[in-house]
## 1
Amino acid sequence: MFLSGRGIGQLRRMSIKAALIDLSGTLHVEDEPTPNAVEALARLRDAGVTVKFVTNTTKDSKGTLHERLCRIGFELDRSEIYSSLSAAVAFVHNGKLNPYYLLSEDARQDFPPEDPNRCQDSVVVGLAPKAFNYEQMNKAFNVLLQNKEHKLVAIHQGKYYKRSDGLALGPGCFVKGLEYAAGCTAELIGKPNPYFFKGALDGLDPSSCVMIGDDANDDIGGAMAMGLQGILVKTGKYLPDVVLSPPPTALVENFADAVDWILKKNQA
């Protein structure tokens, strides 16, 4: 449920104790940090704000994400990363599923191995350009057709994401194609699903937390619906004609400006 105008006003006056920070498009674009992001993250930590890195990235394993961020200058612990892959791994484990995976080889490392002694009972879809071909999509389609109880698990269904050469197609259209063909509805794991944000918060009070991201709907809309404040940055996949209602708590140029906004707010 979205908060009322009065509720949002109260959030604007509260100090911020923790920040959920999107990765691709917000903290970095491929192997380049966004302007002054490395120094800004250090300032945020020095101010005593707890940080957690939350991402819908499904192409890279947690280990690969951690290695990349450290290599381009950020200081963080692997345990501070909470991805939609993390949430999907927990979903597969808790449901005792034996999926057919449409994932990149790297992302596949985070998941349990397939059990050859059991029938495949689900399909897990992430960003996997090499897997989005007719043969593998048809295999996924047939797994779903075998039993109406078989689950289609969408780690996320983003329309697009930001690369150094511009916007690129996300996994959303492939998820929708499987839904259409198999006559099913996907279980959505990543942002903006409440399932994702509850796992990311891990007991933190949403009213004292902020989400910083470049996606108005998945990052900011999803977080604000859970009671967090939301800072939308104009980097990455940000598009000015995407209007969010209610509007973000703040709209800033980049991650460094988002940190400035938090620090000024906490000093007020």
## 2
Amino acid sequence: MSSEPLSTSGARAVTRVRDAASDTRGHDYGFVGRTVAEGIGSFLLVFAGIGVGIFTAGSGISPQLAFGLALAGAMVAFGYISGGHFNPAITLGSAVAGRTQWKYVLPYVLAQLLGAILAVAILWVAITGHQQIGEQTRQFLTGVSNGYGDHSVNLFPLPSALLLEVIAGALLTAVFLGSVARRSGAVAGAFAVGVTYAVLLTVLAPVTNGGINPARSTATAIFAEGWALQQLWLFWAAPLLGAVIAGLIFRSVDMTLAARSSDPAFYAVEPDTHAADETPAAAETPAPATGSTGKPAARTGDTEAPVVDEEARGFFDKPAAGSPENPQDGTPGTRG
């Protein structure tokens, strides 16, 4: 299509240790590096998807699949730097979910827009330079722009286009936030998001020509006929609304987990009364409490601290070297 390197996308760890190390995230690549990565990824995504739609229309790989594969590749290539959004809707949804700091939202969105517009501009120059088809450049880009009503491929009205774009935006954001957990790995998470993007675009192709990504919609509308800019509002409002819905759902889940983790009973282990009857000596020494990972919980005085769930973090959310979470790893962290 987390945030921070997919702490921006992965589920939060609900422990004090996670919070204590959060201030060190993102120091390796910095604000500029992360923003540039979003711009490059957005350029790759739009250049590949729109380029296939223009140059190989009706033959070879479909534009929808091209978008999906390009997104997966961009996430693997640049996601460890920026979180791998490449879509303003994903960035907003990740921020609403609490996975991305709000200070990154505007720079990310601007970078995504610039990358997408640059990609279409290069395609414009390339087509214009062709002696035979150069005069049809605007027509080509109009054909890959998003629209509804009279400009829908199958004349779907505004309500239908709005509904489907909202749902698609919510689903793509939900898959992004849910699939990039460390348990899945970077490649698996990127594959899940890329495939979902391709499938959703295939569903939307006969309705709106496949939107979901406001940066992509804006880039083609700028170089298309005037109606594309007039209808562009829908392809911002609908995906962003869907992303906010998905982000709120995931945020509520994180808050529920945080509330449960603060309850000592959540980590407590029920005593084995049968074992106590059979081995009285062993019963005198209470068994250590275990956390959600099945490992003994750390004790501070009489208070038990929950064990950090390493698998609950984003797959790009690597702790910084030397931090309490990663004291031995010499690889620089990518958290921000």
## 3
Amino acid sequence: MSAQAPSAVLLVRATKFLPNPSTAADNAFQADAPAGESPEELSARALAEMDLVADTLRSVGVRVHVFDDEDHTRPDSVFPNNWISTHAGGMVGVFPMYASNRRHERRSDVLELLKSHFRVQTIVDYSGLEPDGIFLEGTGAMVLDHVSRVAYTAVSHRADTHVLERFCTDFNYEPMAFEAVDSGGVPVYHTNVMACVGTDVALIALDMIPDAHRREQVRERLTVNGRTVVELTEEQVREFAGNAVELCGRHADGRRRYVMAMSARAHRSLRPDQVATIEQSCEIVSVDIPTIELAGGSVRCMIAGVHLDRRPVDLDPDLTEAVRAINEDHPVTLDGRLVDAEG
């Protein structure tokens, strides 16, 4: 199994959704909600899209853990990848967030599920840096190559290089930091909107790296072990083509199935030759999420991959029969969280 493509993911089902006013200033991908639409209507549409993402991932054999969030003060909680990351060897990172109204997205129940369902050895929490105005927003700020142990990072006030160095020391990654801007000179707010690293293919807008020497260093590092680079245009990045993630699912007969999850909007922006290159190593699975994309993030932002070894879980005996009775493709609620039928 590829170390790059996790077979389990965390999603947050946010019942109250709104493009976050506190992030609009530096997130060039964010858009206003449609005029005349009530908050309830907006949230209902977004919730349906969240459920569609979860159902689509389950349909290709990815294990999905979903957490409900009914807190109306967490408009971006649908994007958990910004505050948590998981790593082989039982390591978990918890990260400092730029927007103050995002900091209470960090949830102890998520960490408890990880500890109960997976082998967690160490949790490294950098959130104490927030009062100092120092931030590193998880796998939004960093696009991680888990195989070659490289952390590709577009430098911004959401991705401080000092914290990046600390993370790389603690988690054994090589920092690969670079400046990245759009055609108007606006810095890219999160690396994962312009780049995605898979096992055998990477999607990246290299032309958004203005320093030609650094651009070639990034290209060389991505390809050194034979990985193919699909170069994205800035226009495709604006359609969220870079905001994709490779996952490991299962066919009905149990065979492994590698997929590249992205939005339908992102998929439509790709040229036929780019699609063909991606599908040489994994199949594209796309979901239409136009409401959630108003918040400036897409499918990859919604997914926190679980790169941890599973552990056997002893369920409450009173719940055992209920769990056995459900279909494997449908979750059951246990103590306020959704758990797949395998436990």
